[in-house]
Amino acid sequence: MFDEPSAGLHPHDVHRLLTLLTQLRDAHNTVLVVEHHPAVIAAADHIIDLGPGAGTDGGLIQFEGTPAEIGATRTATGRMLHTRIRVNDRPRTAREVVTISHATAHNLHGITVDVPLRVLTAVTGVAGSGKSTLIASELPRQHPGFTVIGQVPLHGGIRSTPATVLDIAEPVREAFSYATGLHPSWFSANSRGACPVCKGRGIVVTDLAFLDDVRTTCEACDGSRFNPTTLAAGLHGHTIAQTLSMNASRAKDLFSDHPEITRRLAWLDQVGLGYLTIGQSLDTLSGGERQRLLLARHLSTTESAHQRIVLDEPTAGLHGNDVDDLLTLLDRLVDSGATVIAIEHNQRVIAHADHVIDLGPGAGADGGRILYQGPPAGLIASPHSLTGRHLRDFVR
Q: Which domains does the chain have, with CATH numbers?
C-alpha cells in the first residue's frame, strides 16, 4: 500500500514510478495506491473513488471500476481524469524584476536569473534540480522580503488546532464568555474548562511499560475535553465542544457577528481547508494541509497588495478540483498586487502560470542550471526541457 507515492515527483519520475508499480503487480503482488496524480489513476486496473467532498462532506463511495469507465461518470475525479487544460496564452507582463545573481549554493552552477514581480511564477524541474535552493533559499537571502511558506511541521502538540494557528481560540472563548457570563478560562481545555479526568486531552493514555501506550477516548467527557460546567453553557445553542467540532464553513455562520473570527475563517475556506474542524489536532493534518493552513494564517494577518510569497509545492495532496480552486486564489492575490512564486511539478499550475523558470537538466550535480525562462507556451517548445516535454503531452 502506497500513500501518494507521486508526491514531490516530476512527471518524468512519475512515469518511472509507474514502471515499478506495474512490475510489482506483474510479479503477482497486490498494489494499493492512494493518489491524486492523473497518470497514476489512469494506469490503475481498478479505481475506488470517494467523495463527494472533504471532511463530513465525504466518506461515500462515488465509483468503482476501470479508468475508462470513470470517464463516463459525473464524479470530480472522472472529469479531472478526462479533461485536458489549455496553456495560458495571455500571461500577465511583469513591469519589474529582482535578480538572483551568481547563485552557487549546493548544486547551483553560478545561476543568474530575473524573477518577475506581481505575476504568478512556476519554478520547475526534476526533483533535486535545485529549485528550492534557488527560490526558497537564495532568493530571500539576496532579497529579504519574500515570505517562504513550505511544508514544514507546525509546532505544537495534541492541543494545537487550526483555531490556535489562526489566533481565533481566544476570541472564540471571549465570545462564549460574553454570551454566558462565565470567565473565558472556562472555555479553555487547558484551564478551568478542562475535564478533570483526562486533563483536557480528550483521551486517556495507558502506559503498558515495554509495549506501546494505549490511547482510549475519555469516558468522563466522551472525548469532548471539557468539564460538565463548561458543557452546560452555550452560544447560539452550541457548546464549546460542538463549536470546535464544526468545520470552518459552518463556524463562520455561528460567529457571523464577530468579524475578526469570520475573516480569518474565510481565509481558511479560500485556501481550500473549509472542511477542517477548527478544533482538530494538528497531528491529523497532512503536509499539504499544514502548508495551506500557514498560508491562511499569513494572508489573514497581512495586506494582499505588494506581498511576495514563495510556496513550496502548494498542490501536494490536492485533487485536481482543489488545484483549480487554489489557482483562483493565487490569481486573486496577484491581481491585488502580490508576487506569487510556486515551486511545482503540477502541470495545471505550470500551464496556468504567467512565467516559468525551469531548472535541470538532471538532479544533483547534473542539475543546477537554467534550462528555460519565459511564458509556459515557450516551455512547451523548449527542446531541452523534460518539464516542457511532459507539459506538451498534458495540455491541448
A: 2-81 (3.40.50.300), 97-153+285-394 (3.40.50.300), 162-283 (1.20.1580.10)
